[in-house]
TrEMBL record:
Comp. bias regions, Basic and acidic residues: 28-65
EC number: 2.7.11.1
Annotated region described as Disordered, given as residue ranges: 1-111
InterPro entries hit by this protein: Kinase-like_dom_sf, RIO-type_Ser/Thr_kinase, RIO_dom, RIO_kinase
Catalytic reactions on record: L-threonyl-[protein] + ATP = O-phospho-L-threonyl-[protein] + ADP + H(+); L-seryl-[protein] + ATP = O-phospho-L-seryl-[protein] + ADP + H(+)
Pfam families: RIO1
Protein name per the record: non-specific serine/threonine protein kinase
A GO molecular-function descriptor: kinase activity
Coiled-coil region list: none
Record-linked SUPFAM superfamilies: Protein kinase-like (PK-like)
Keywords: ATP-binding, Kinase, Magnesium, Metal-binding, Nucleotide-binding, Serine/threonine-protein kinase, Transferase
Organism: Promicromonospora vindobonensis
Family: Belongs to the protein kinase superfamily. RIO-type Ser/Thr kinase family.
């Protein structure tokens, strides 16, 4: 079973990619996003607002003929090969990355690791200042042959949903507070460290972009192993981090399965009991971070998912080293005040100064 059991939420439509794989920008709040209907090959307008970036995404692996009457454009009744990558697809990259670039053991039962699996990009989940998150379906298509006998401790998984977080270069990113977070960080090769310090060089900018992805993957790996409520980090490949999709799947009236991402905490209005449970879960997650020597650095209700009755902390590229970063105490205190403000506004008696002191005690 997955480490975090699914807790279905009320579906909310998500902005998805266009047919050519790009996402149309919205300049006004009243403009509804496009959801790409992969079954019908059409785009439709969803009645959602600008901030509704969560769920659902249609899921389809097998491609259909595109011409009239179920044929291709030349009129020939040629069925596409379901075992070959098509538009928006690639072979699973699990085996192409080094072992140290994969998630920690034991691997979750739901994770697909077969070489025959195809990664299908279903659309965009969220855009950010330094990266964009895409929904990816990793599945073994029909016709790819029987699944091998599972090894001891492994499940016969054939399909899973992942999030591909792809970092932009410094030339295209909008996140300009990097020094506050990267102070005290070091990279393995001194040549790369010197390049990062020279922001005018193309190599330095490329290494800096990779550093953000590396920082998030390492933080997720360590936190997952320590029992913190974070998505499972599947793998890292350059500036792309693949991780667990947090959410559930629903079936609409037409019988199509759709993925619905868990909403951000800021959108929730929990009951008193659930609010207290959320607070205890968040305190636990922040305590695990502190014991590992980290502060989140940008913790807020926008970077916490409410997956039913559980919280999941996301967006960790800017994790701050509490020992080596001179801004660490200031950053940690800011995190405490931000989350306490949200809980206090909903009637829970919380003290950011007490939380800050408790986390420092656990860190040192």
């Amino acid at each position: 079973m997955p480490r975090f059991p699914e807790a279905p939420k009320k579906p909310a439509l998500v902005r998805a990619a266009n047919r050519n794989g790009t996402s149309s920008a919205r300049s006004a709040p009243e403009r509804a996003p496009e959801v790409w209907d992969l079954e019908r090959g059409t785009a439709r307008r969803a009645l959602v607002g600008r901030d509704d970036l969560e769920g659902p995404h249609p899921s389809r692996l097998r491609r259909e003929p595109t011409g009239p009457g179920g044929s291709h454009g030349d009129g020939a009744d040629v069925q596409p090969d379901p075992t070959q990558p098509g538009p928006g697809q690639r072979w699973s990259t699990w085996r192409s990355v080094a072992k140290g670039q994969r998630g920690p053991d034991p691997q979750p039962d739901w994770l697909v690791t077969r070489d025959a699996a195809l990664d299908t990009e279903l659309g965009i989940l969220k855009t950010g200042k330094e990266a964009d998150a895409f929904l990816v379906e990793r599945a073994v298509p029909l016709g790819a042959g029987p699944a091998p006998a599972p090894a001891s401790g492994e499940a016969d998984a054939e399909r899973c949903l992942l999030v591909a977080k792809r970092y932009r270069s410094l030339d295209h990113g909008q996140f300009h507070r990097g020094t506050e977070y990267t102070e005290g960080r070091r990279v393995r090769r001194t040549r790369d460290q010197r390049a990062m310090e020279d922001r005018k060089s193309a190599w330095g900018r490329a290494v800096s972009a990779t550093q953000w992805a590396d920082a998030e993957f390492v933080a997720l790996r360590d936190l997952w192993s320590a029992g913190a409520p974070v998505p499972y980090p599947v793998q890292i490949d350059g500036t792309e981090v693949l991780m667990e999709f947090v959410g559930t799947e629903v079936t609409d009236d037409a019988g199509r399965t759709q993925a619905v991402a868990a909403p951000r905490l800021t959108r929730e209005r929990p009951s008193d009991d659930l609010l207290e449970s959320y607070w205890e879960q968040l305190r636990h997650g922040m305590a695990v971070l502190a014991r590992l020597g980290f502060a989140h650095g940008d913790l807020s209700p926008y970077n916490i998912l409410a997956d039913g009755e559980r919280l999941v902390i996301i967006d960790l590229p800017q994790v701050v080293d509490l020992a080596s970063n001179p801004f660490a105490s200031e950053v940690l205190l800011r995190d405490c005040r931000t989350v306490c403000t949200w809980f206090a506004a909903r009637g829970l008696d919380v003290d950011p100064e007490a939380l800050f002191a408790d986390l420092l005690a656990q860190a040192f």
